[in-house]
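Example: Serine-threonine/tyrosine-protein kinase catalytic domain-containing protein.
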Amino acid sequence: MWMLSSGIRPYCDRPHDSKLIQQICSGLRPSDVSGTPPSFAKLMLQCLDADPSNRPTASQLFKHLGKWVSDLPSQFDNIEIPFVNLEKLSLKSSSRHEGAIYFSRPLDFISTKY
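Written out as structure tokens, the predicted fold is:
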């Protein structure tokens, strides 16, 4: 959701290493992005909550997203702020950090203390 909002991949400007993992486990989250529709931003931030018990369940997401789809025709009459960054979204961006890796790999560098 954050990638749709920002137009870039999360943490693309830093290496995806044990330091980033530790920071995420300690509460690091991407911030909301200017130009994101308010209802989308609210749901995105709920999904990113550091406390898993505060995140919506799959059933809640299904219900929430279903409401968006059923309300879609009326939203053309009452348009929220559009995704202003969506047109710049590029998954092949050359501006990412050389240590930012967006595919599965073994995490052998992580010690068992995490």
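The mean pLDDT is 76.
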